[in-house]
Structure formats: C-alpha cells, structure tokens
Amino acid sequence: MSNLRFSSVLIILFFFHTTSAQTAPAAPSGPTNITQVLEKAGQFTTFIKLLKATQVADRINAQLNNSNQGLTIFAPTDNAFASLKSGLLNSISSQEQLQLVQFHILPNLYTVSQFQTASNPLQTQAGNGGDGQFPLNVTTSGNQVNVTTGVVDASVANTIYSDSQLAVYQVDQVLLPLALFGAPPTPAPAPAPTRPEKNVRAADSPSSTTPVNTSGVLGLIGLRGKGAILSVAVIAVTASCLWL
C-alpha cells in the first residue's frame, strides 16, 4: 500500500513538472533596437526621426543583430537640435542628412574609459577624418568626455545605454561635420594703408603749379649784367688813354 502511494506521488510530481515546463513564459529577450532604446530614454524625438528618415536605424539594428561588431552612438537631445539655426536641417540635401547622422556613429564600441586612450581623429561612419573633412576628436578629464568637430564643441552628458555591443551617449550639441557646415569664419586682417599713386608722384617731382622763387636767379642775372657794363666801361677808358 505504501509503495502504491509513493508511486502515485511520483506520477503527480512528474505530471506537474511537465505541465509547468510547457506553460512557463519564455525569458524576455529580443534583438537590440536603437529607436526603442532612444524612445525609452526620452528627449530624442528629432534624432529618432533622422535615424528613420535616413534608414540608418535599420542598418544599426541589422548590424547589432547579425554581427559581433560594436557601435558607439552620440545622441543629441531635442534641445540640442532646437538650438540650431532655424531651417538648418532643411537646407541640406538628403545625402547630407545621411552624412550628418552617420557622423554621430562610431563603427567601434567605446567605453568611457576607452575614450581616454583613443587616437584622434576618431573614425565615424561618415568618414575617417584623416582627410580633414570629418574630423571627430575627443578629450577627457576624469570621467568627463568632450567632443570637437571643428565646428562645435559638445560634452557627453551621460550614458543612455551600454552592453557588449552598443554604447549610446547623450551629447548636448548636434555634431556638425566640417565638410558640411565649414569652420566658423575668422575675421580677415585689416589691410595696410597705402598712399595713392598720384600723391607719391607729387612728392617725388615738383608740380607745375608749385610757385618757384625766382628772385635769386633774377638777382644773379642782374649782377652779371652790371659787371658786363662795368667791364666795357673800363676797357673804353683804357683804350682812350693809350690813344692819347
């Protein structure tokens, strides 16, 4: 009788275990989605729109879920986009909008500590920066990371998301690449003052209208004339004396 009860308990336990294993919900897991990461963080509406419009979001998700290559993304906030000159984004072509978004993405995973030893300029998906068109330089001070593009200087505010493949950092400025927006204009040096050509000529040669003091010349001529008359008179007197 005891054996029967023991067998019944084993059957019940086995049935319960099998039923639980079949009905237990799977652990929540799924592919990484960059737009969901940014939506969860909030305040990145404009950047999400650009990611979708340029189809960069789809490329990021495909890369993260189909390869082991890591990515680093600098995500500007809505306030950062609001601080741009009015109409700036609409003034550039769709190709340039793509380059602008790609400029915010590094094709390698960087932790905050790895920025301290990174070699500038960093390579972005828009370009390698070696030709001077898409330079992206980082400087660090402790845990503070600053990003310079040649057009704007931005600071990394905090880490939005981080795992073994993806790091997303919040930046307080839109990273404007040099190739699209150029460097801030520098004031040209003031030209050296030049003297007009006619003034130089006037200084070098006397003008025809400049009065000339002729009193000295006329006086000299007068003296010479008087000397000639005196000489003639002396000769005449001498000749008359000899004649006599």
From TrEMBL:
The FAS1 domain extends over 31-175
PROSITE patterns linked: FAS1
| Localization per record | Cell membrane
Q: Name one GO cellular component term.
A: side of membrane
Q: Does the keyword Nucleotide-binding apply?
A: no
Pfam families, per database record = Fasciclin
Query: Does this entry carry the keyword Glycoprotein?
Result: yes
UniProt main location, coarse: membrane
Write out the entry's keywords from A to Z.
Answer: Cell membrane, Glycoprotein, GPI-anchor, Lipoprotein, Membrane, Proteoglycan, Signal
Q: Where is this region: Disordered?
A: 187-211
How this chain sits in the membrane, per its record, is: Lipid-anchor; GPI-anchor
Set out the biological process GO terms recorded for this chain's protein: plant-type secondary cell wall biogenesis
What range does the record give for the signal peptide?
1-21
Q: Which domain of life is it from?
A: Eukaryota
Q: Which Gene3D superfamilies match?
A: FAS1 domain (2.30.180.10)
Reported function: May be a cell surface adhesion protein.
Which family is this sequence assigned to? Belongs to the fasciclin-like AGP family.
Task: Give the protein name, as stated in the record.
Answer: FAS1 domain-containing protein
The major lineage groups are: Eukaryota, Viridiplantae, Streptophyta, Embryophyta, Tracheophyta
